[in-house]
Amino acid sequence: MTPSNESELTQTVLQSLEGTHDARFLQVMQSLITHLHAFIRDVDLKPDEWMQGIEFLTAVGQTCTDKRQEFILLSDTLGASMMVVILDQLRAAAGKRGRAANEATEATELTEATHATVQGPFYWEGAPDLPLGADVAQGARGEPTFYSGRVTDTHGQPLEGALLDIWSGDGEGVYDMQVEGAAMQARGRIRTDHEGRYWFWSIRPSFYPIPVDGPVGHMLEAMGRHPNRPGHIHMMVSAPGHVPVTTHLFVAGSPYIESDAVFGVRPRLIVDFESHPPSRAPDGRPIEAPYWSAHYDFRLEPQHA
Amino acid sequence: MTPSNESELTQTVLQSLEGTHDARFLQVMQSLITHLHAFIRDVDLKPDEWMQGIEFLTAVGQTCTDKRQEFILLSDTLGASMMVVILDQLRAAAGKRGRAANEATEATELTEATHATVQGPFYWEGAPDLPLGADVAQGARGEPTFYSGRVTDTHGQPLEGALLDIWSGDGEGVYDMQVEGAAMQARGRIRTDHEGRYWFWSIRPSFYPIPVDGPVGHMLEAMGRHPNRPGHIHMMVSAPGHVPVTTHLFVAGSPYIESDAVFGVRPRLIVDFESHPPSRAPDGRPIEAPYWSAHYDFRLEPQHA
């Protein structure tokens, strides 16, 4: 079939996929082509605009190195990464029952498990296993903060030995990985006690900008958007037989909490950081400077058979 | 606003564009984000599939050099380039009257002007000006072909001095630009006579594959698609006061005429190449080998004020 107009063209391109063996790849590409063509028609994209798009995507690809992934940054800043995160958690909640059949109960399920958010580019495998109550900061600059809470399943049953894999930037928004040759800081793995409780020290994380010296930075500028993420600490929380969750705790009141450049903030992940004068901390430790405390209970979805 | 589910996420991302100054950029990005999110939701895109997409796009960008544009190849093989070409010609036909108001008459308008198709990567500016009847082949391998016809406006009025900027590969599907250090071949600029007529010699072009050694080649393979374009000769036809058209003439019966890898074939651009025994050619020249002839009349849309 040879197309004589734009509707026939879309049909012709879709028909060209008939030889695709992988059913899932076929489904993804059919949807992608349908939306790509619809986008071009909806905005009546002009040849010079198309060429600007080609040049932009090329520049994004050529900005990628083994230390920088500009396409992930693009996906993040367009909300695509966060959409994938949300859908992945919905799918886990729906389990084997199938998503369509479960539409009605989705909202309920999601209120039960801790909300997920983006992993981001600063996860560093091999953080040290630390005892309950340890100082995860490991020398990172920043105001000391006492973190505590519980890990339970979605029915409220405490999960003993659940793993919290924790990482954050320092009190000025800089991650250890961003400093050439730096050692690990503000990273650690902590396990809950027999009542599902955890507690540890670290710093109060600060907002920071994503890299803006590449094409994605120029895009944000053209959109009149700032490049900042509000202060947050990352956690990957897992326990055998449960769906792990990759998430952040966001500092309530942090600048940019209402306008995260990568759309990672979700209302249930915003945590009040309470300020304290120098005193005896909740774990009994005497603290000679002002400090903060943050409390958060994590809930994990049981894995469906 | 911070999103708690996937619908709110799309709204949040769209709201983040409120500071965009350029109204057209805003319109394009709103549509792009809406379709991007809808695509991800429609197929319920999984994190590992998202990552495959990121890696694919990165590889496409990194395959681009100053001599190769893999993103254009991707756009071509998904039919996006051809969609832009078709819309551009519809817009020119609709002129200043506005596209929406003109929907009803579009079909008629398009049958009048010669259909456009993709420019492709092998246009080389500065082809020689040649007299009517010249051999454009300039030594390119292939079976000799006599091309003739007229250039008129869409009312049938002949256009004197209309320019045909002509290029093609040779009879084996190879363009001069693809041979390191080669001189120009099978390229030339011809002008119509006072009755709008043109005639020239060149070769009968062959089908050929687009480059398949990059990520786009792997994508075509996964789709079970071949990478070939049917035989065609390129023309950019222009005349003062008229909308220029960039198009091809396709060789009727060429392999892949029904399945052009870049979807450039349109029914009205397929031309019968008539075979002739050695004889006196239509321009009076005695030809000692078998040859072909192809006849095509081009029509240009008058430019709207």
From TrEMBL, chains A, B:
**Domain Catechol dioxygenase N-terminal span(s) in chain numbering:** 22-92
Q: Name one GO molecular function term.
A: catechol 1,2-dioxygenase activity
What is the source species?
Variovorax paradoxus
| BP term (GO), one | catechol-containing compound metabolic process
Cofactor(s) required, per the database record: Fe(3+)
Q: What's the Enzyme Commission number for this chain?
A: 1.13.11.37
The alphabetized UniProt keywords are: Dioxygenase, Iron, Metal-binding, Oxidoreductase
Q: From the Swiss-Prot or TrEMBL record, give the protein name.
A: Hydroxyquinol 1,2-dioxygenase
Similarity field? Belongs to the intradiol ring-cleavage dioxygenase family.
- Give a single Pfam family match: Dioxygenase_C
From the broadest rank down, the organism's phylogenetic lineage runs: Bacteria, Pseudomonadati, Pseudomonadota, Betaproteobacteria, Burkholderiales
Taking every annotated instance into account, which residue ranges of this chain make up the domain Intradiol ring-cleavage dioxygenases? 120-276
Give the top-level enzyme category. Answer: oxidoreductase
